[in-house]
Design goal:
Shape: globular
Number of strands: 39
Largest sheet: 8 strands, mixed
Strand order of the largest sheet: 32-33-35-34-36-37-38-39
Distance between the termini: 47 Å
Number of helices: 10
Structural class: alpha+beta
Length: 704
């Protein structure tokens, strides 16, 4: 039942031919006289008008910029061939691990090029699979995506959650599983919410309806938890919890498997969350606070009898499992069940009345089985170093897991909890030969002496002659770990002699909370230094040179790319900042940007914090007359996580500052958001453009 926060990452590719050396002609971007004053320092913001995402002027600017970008990309000779190759590589059957609900097996399947994956059900693993829900029928262009599902405990209903055009706004609908009929129930303006069932109804989190025209940019405030009873209109939903004293915090709900307890998570004012419990077996039960320090994570694993098991990093930077009586769940009554270990405990779940605990060693997953008294029963063997995700019920010994690595396409295994044994259940048929490639993990030294791990993936027989194209990827923030994973988008790049490098920077969660904190607030420069050191290592070890080095990252990783290309423009040939946080002085003024202050701090905190943010903010550290790398900024019109104004303003300022002939372009996707739920057709188009740009500007040879 633990809540997991995932982040979607981008892919890779390449190109060739003789590129023009004459500078491109860009649309002229108007400037205004906007000036902000921070602690006595005036800071011009001449492109402030681009923050108005609904104005005709901004729409015209977007159209003009896209025209230049797509004209450039359309002239790359092998762009069409690369798209064709990516389409062929993507066209294979993709399955999720099966998961059991009420004695039936459910799974998601994509036939290959379907924009959205389809939910199926089968009575047994050998029975005919039947469609439960096909999200492709919810829109003509695949831009309505399924973002979550939840089954009622009695097996009668399926609540499904959709997003439109990639927005974080959610709508919730309900299917009658016996008849397959869509009920009249509909929830609007939900956000950062699941649908957690209790009886014939569910809990969800929502905001009041936003101001018309500002749905994707205004600050979100006053998150509330409601209970919806099937058959009633949303207007009658019962308000379960709110806290008007803190309008910018998040409040989300979770229900124990036995439906006895409601958990309320409060977050948005620290690196973790406060935790509350409500005993649903009692009449008019109070909401009891269990833990209150929002700088730590407190996440229930499950209720076992009269014990509550909790995953936390409070007093354990690498995490541990605690237990407490449900009758007196307050933190003073907690006891250690599984202590903190040498490696980071990255996930915990209850399957077959056993604990499945996943530990990360140097950014790779290693799962172990424990009994409910905290005794280790053995390691769960995996095919190699990589990443794993389990699906299974607390009282069912049959489970499944999906394993993947850089050269290991996601493969599903059937797992017997009692025997601690697994067998391959379903493997994808990808047009890719893993035997042609190898993965290597290296450890390089950061600027301040820190040892930083990095994965390298390349074709066997690689010559370290300083001439290999490299795509260096990073994130470095919000306690998120970059584990090994497979992407068909990288295959053309790797097959063309490229090296994919994935650096595990400080700011992430690879080595626990201390590693995370070392890349936050007044230590954020450590993240950029680690990324720059990764590039310098790749050059000094003769894997590549500056003329063959591309960097890419998304969201916080887009900030990473923007900051590093500004600090060391001569070090990189190509930069791909995707949906990046580029204005560090104003990021907290849009949608849920204020929630990132635990990692960044804000320009309003203090003079020291303002000056530190300004010193690395990509928008504010561009210098006129500088030769910048070939840059393709990417964003989307419905991104209400990192609003597109970040990328708009950065691209305009970059085009004005760049003194060289390298292209500085922005690609603005329509009917798309931060990344989640993007239809396959748009994913292929975007990856073809990104990799064509990388190939072309690294001078790579395209071989069809």
């Amino acid at each position: 039942m633990r809540i997991n926060y995932l982040i979607l990452l981008g892919g890779l590719i390449m190109l060739n031919s003789c590129q023009t050396k004459s500078p491109l002609s860009y649309p002229e971007t108007a400037k205004d006289n906007t000036i902000d004053t921070y602690f006595g320092t005036e800071v011009p913001d001449p492109y402030r008008w681009l923050e108005n995402d609904t104005s005709k002027a901004t729409a015209a600017w977007v159209e003009e910029q896209n025209a230049v970008t797509f004209d450039y990309l359309g002239k790359i000779p092998f762009r069409g061939a690369l798209k064709k190759k990516l389409t062929e590589l993507t066209d294979y059957e993709k399955y999720s691990s099966p998961f059991k609900k009420n004695g039936k097996y459910y799974f998601f399947k994509n036939d290959g090029l379907q924009n959205q994956s389809v939910l199926y059900v089968q009575e047994t693993l050998d029975a005919e699979a039947k469609v439960v829900l096909d999200p492709n029928k919810l829109s003509d262009d695949g831009t309505v995506a399924l973002s979550g599902i939840s089954f009622s405990k009695n097996g009668k209903y399926l609540a499904y959650i959709i997003s439109r055009s990639g927005s974080d706004w959610r709508e919730i609908y309900v299917l009658d599983l016996a008849t397959g009929q869509l009920l009249e129930d509909k929830i609007e303006w939900a956000k950062f919410s699941g649908a957690d069932w209790k009886g014939d109804g569910f809990y969800y989190s929502a905001y009041n309806a936003p101001v018309a025209g500002k749905e994707f940019s205004n600050v979100n405030e006053n998150h509330k938890i409601y209970y919806h009873k099937i058959g009633e209109p949303q207007s009658k939903d019962r308000l379960v919890y709110q806290n008007p004293k803190y309008p910018k915090r998040f409040y989300t709900a979770g229900v124990s498997e036995d439906e006895r307890f409601l958990f309320i998570f409060e977050s948005g004012d620290g690196r973790g969350n406060a935790l509350y419990l409500q005993d649903l077996t009692k009449a008019n039960p109070p909401v009891v606070q269990i833990a209150d320090n929002m700088d730590y994570i407190y996440s229930p694993v499950e209720v076992v009898g009269n014990r509550l098991l909790i995953y936390t990093n409070d007093g354990a930077p690498k995490y541990k499992i605690m237990e407490t009586p449900t009758a007196v769940p307050q933190q003073k009554n907690w006891k250690v069940l599984v202590p903190e270990m040498e490696n980071v405990l990255s996930n915990a779940s209850l399957i077959g009345n056993k604990l499945v605990l996943t530990y990360d060693k140097d950014a790779s997953n290693h799962p172990y089985l424990y009994d409910l008294n905290g005794k280790e029963l053995g390691e769960i063997k995996l095919p190699s170093l990589g990443s794993v995700g389990f699906s299974g019920e607390p009282d069912d010994t049959e489970a499944f897991f999906t394993f993947t690595s850089f050269t290991f396409p996601p493969t599903i295994y059937r797992y017997d909890v009692e025997k601690n044994a697994s067998e391959e259940y379903r493997a994808p048929k990808v047009q890719f030969n893993p035997a042609d490639f190898e993965t290597k993990q290296v450890f390089y030294t950061g600027k301040d002496g820190a040892k930083v791990p990095m994965f390298l993936v390349y074709k066997k027989g690689l010559q370290r002659n300083g001439k290999n194209p490299v795509l260096l990827y990073g994130y470095g923030g919000f306690n998120i770990s970059l584990n090994p994973g497979f992407s068909t988008s990288r295959i053309p790049f790797l097959e063309s002699g490229g090296i994919y490098a994935q650096a595990n920077l400080r700011g992430g969660g690879e080595y626990g909370e201390e590693w995370h904190i070392a890349g936050t607030k007044l230590q954020k420069q450590n993240v950029f230094d680690d990324f720059i050191a990764a590039a310098e290592y790749l050059i000094s070890e003769k894997y590549t040179s500056s003329d063959k080095l591309a960097i890419m990252g998304g969201s916080n990783g887009g900030l990473l790319v923007g900051a590093c290309m500004n600090q060391r423009p001569e070090l990189f040939k190509v930069a791909i900042p995707q949906v990046g946080v580029m204005d560090m002085l104003r990021y907290h003024k849009f949608t849920i940007g204020w929630n990132w202050a635990s990692d960044y701090g804000t320009s309003e905190d203090s003079k020291e914090m303002f000056e530190y943010l300004k010193s690395y903010s990509p928008l504010h550290t561009l210098k006129a007359g500088t030769v910048y790398p070939a840059t393709l900024v990417t964003t989307a019109d419905h991104d209400d996580r990192v609003v597109p104004a970040h990328s708009f303003k950065f691209a305009a300022a970059l085009q004005a500052a760049n003194a060289g002939t390298n292209p500085t372009l922005i690609r603005i996707e329509t009917k798309a958001g931060h990344g989640a739920g993007k239809p396959i057709s748009k994913v292929i188009d975007e990856q073809a453009d990104i990799y064509s740009f990388i190939f072309y500007n690294l001078g790579m040879k395209w071989k069809d």
